[in-house]
Design goal:
2-enoyl-CoA Hydratase, Chain A, domain 1, Enoyl-CoA_hydra_C, alpha/beta, Enoyl-CoA_Hydratase/Isomerase, Isohexenylglutaconyl-CoA hydratase, single chain, 12 helices
């Protein structure tokens, strides 16, 4: 097993790839090998039809404490090298944001800096009530260079300004209130139960329709207007006349589950 393999663990469970950030002694702070490993997982999973969703979490009771500052120290003050390291993380965030399948983050302990950014680009974010969230960069003389645009998109300009400019930490209840996360659970058992509910619903979603819907939702804020709606109409026609659409509509009429649904009754 290589360092890159051991730094991020992955396991397939019923069509869901369970991905775990595995640097617990560093509170899962992200370094270069971890970024590369996550990029490879996202790329491979996007192309693998057996993967219906990714669940991303951290080992040792912490999601992610942010970027590993020692990566910056290793560049010996070379501004070009520092910018390149920083930009690589931004590329990861872009790729996670546009991952064409469901991306779920399971947040425990802390989601700081880059971990905060990953939560902001997940489709579903679940947290235990003891999880803390922050953009602490300004407190150590840095800026949230790569995550700021995604934070603004997730929680709005007013909340992003408040958190980014103060570096203040908030609890899961406040994170839920401002729209950063979708569910707050009291303990690990409740968190796993909520995750099971989310994944059961995800398995009932038609894969191609889910991918097209994600693209439509992501494109809507910046391009709303006739062009977007024209493309959406064309995509709808393509969907309903596809084998997946034919199967889905037939299953609805016949009051049965479609072929891709793996578990549970229709929601």
């Amino acid at each position: 097993m290589t360092e890159q393999d051991s730094i991020v663990l992955s396991e397939m469970r019923d069509g869901v790839l369970m991905v775990t950030l595995n640097r617990p002694k560093a509170r899962n702070a992200m370094n270069g090998p971890m970024v590369t490993a996550l990029q490879n997982i996202l790329k491979d999973s996007a192309e693998d039809v057996s993967v219906r969703a990714i669940v991303l979490r951290g080992a040792g009771g912490t999601f992610c404490a942010g970027g590993d500052i020692s990566d910056m120290a290793a560049t010996a003050g070379d501004k070009t090298a520092i910018a390149a390291v920083n930009r690589r993380f931004g590329t990861l965030i872009e790729e996670a944001n546009r991952f064409p399948k469901l991306l779920v983050t399971v947040l425990e302990g802390a989601a700081m800096g880059g971990g905060f950014g990953l939560a902001c680009v997940s489709d579903v974010a679940l947290a235990t009530e003891n999880c803390r969230f922050a953009m602490p960069e300004v407190a150590i003389g840095l800026i949230p260079a790569q995550i700021a645009p995604f934070v603004v998109q997730r929680i709005g300009l007013a909340q992003a300004r408040y958190l980014a400019l103060t570096g203040i930490a908030i609890d899961a209840g406040e994170a839920y209130r401002i729209g950063l996360i979708h569910h707050v659970e009291t303990d690990a058992s409740a968190l796993e139960a909520r995750l099971d509910t989310i994944l059961a619903a995800a398995r009932r979603a038609a894969p191609n329709a889910q991918q097209k819907t994600k693209t439509l939702v992501l494109d809507s804020p910046g391009t709303f207007g006739p062009d977007l709606l024209n493309q959406a109409a064309a995509d709808f026609a393509e969907a309903i006349t596809s084998p997946e659409g034919a199967e889905g509509t037939a299953a609805f009429v016949e009051k049965r589950l479609p072929s891709w649904a793996e578990n549970g009754d229709r929601a």
